[in-house]
Write a structure and sequence with these properties.
By secondary structure, the chain is mainly alpha-helical. It has two domains: about 15-110, no CATH class; about 115-280, no CATH class. It is built from ten helices and no strands. About 30% of the residues are buried. Mean pLDDT is about 75; it is low at about 1-30 and about 160-165.
Length: about 280
């Protein structure tokens, strides 16, 4: 999804609702780059996993109470570290909030396995939503991909100045997700050009995004299908196996999914990218 042509983008820290009218009766459009600035990337994924790792280790060594305080302490530490370094705290805050709910449930029930119950429910819900979006022909992977890196721009299809192979695809993806340059005088970002046709009118795009959405939805449901039975089998004072399996099915599997998604999206960009001008 792209911003409407002719609209200026808001400057940092100003949303479309907060921005003032530009004097010509136009309000700056919602800026996808403001959202991108808040994404934690690989660092965010790692930060989100640290409280769970701390809980698994501390709970197995010192029991539930030690595990709870270790998870909370780690989440608070990650949040404060990002705050001190003036980095985006959105993911750290979300992680702190999620850990707070998880430890509250575990503390209330007195069972370590309840630390993971929210994650199990979340995986099942996200999986069902993803698969449901395919049925209504609005595959969510496509919605997100076209919002973050519209395929008609063709940026991920550019081969020049990028190394070959998977590293090159990751490099191109990183370049696409960088905020656009600002105008030196006005501070406004350049506006994306309008596509010749909406991505949902391109059957190849819809089909590819549909399969990618099925992949992500199936993985979320697989996580719930594996960790759900482990939750019910876990002893009241020990959920180490459940925690380890949750971690293994987390970042490592997500990295593989992202690699596959970036490879497919790069090919889709090449499919829709404008033809290069003739040489000479």
């Amino acid at each position: 999804m792209t911003a409407a042509a002719g609209n200026d983008r808001p400057v940092d820290g100003v949303t479309g609702e907060q921005a003032a009218d530009d004097g010509a009766g136009r309000t700056p459009a919602f800026d996808r780059h403001v959202v991108l600035d808040q994404l934690g990337g690989w660092r965010g994924m790692l930060d989100a996993s640290l409280p769970t790792i701390a809980f698994i280790v501390a709970n197995s060594l010192g029991g539930l109470r030690v595990g709870i305080w270790s998870a909370l302490g780690t989440a608070v530490g990650v949040f404060l570290l990002r705050l001190v370094r003036r980095e985006s705290v959105q993911q750290a805050f979300s992680g702190l909030f999620a850990v707070g709910i998880a430890v509250a449930i575990a503390a209330y029930s007195g069972q370590a396995r309840d630390f993971y119950v929210i994650g199990i429910i979340r995986n099942a819900a996200i999986g069902l939503v993803l698969l449901g979006s395919v049925l209504v022909r609005w595959p969510l992977v496509g919605v997100i991909a076209e919002f973050l890196a519209p395929s008609h721009l063709g940026a991920m299809a550019t081969r020049s100045a990028h190394p070959p192979g998977l590293r090159g695809r990751l490099h191109r993806a990183s370049a696409v997700l960088q905020p656009a340059e600002r105008h030196p005088d006005t501070g406004a970002r350049a506006t994306d050009p309008e596509p010749e046709c909406h991505w949902r009118d391109d059957r190849r795009l819809v089909r590819a995004y549909g399969w990618l959405t099925v992949l992500w939805g199936a993985v979320f449901l697989l996580r719930a299908a594996i960790t759900g039975p482990l939750y019910f089998q876990s002893e009241d004072d020990d959920a180490t196996v459940l925690g380890v399996v949750s971690l293994v099915l987390g970042i490592p599997v997500t990295v593989v999914e992202l690699a596959i998604t970036l490879w497919v999206v790069a090919r889709l960009h090449r499919h829709r990218a404008p033809a290069p001008p003739p040489a000479g």
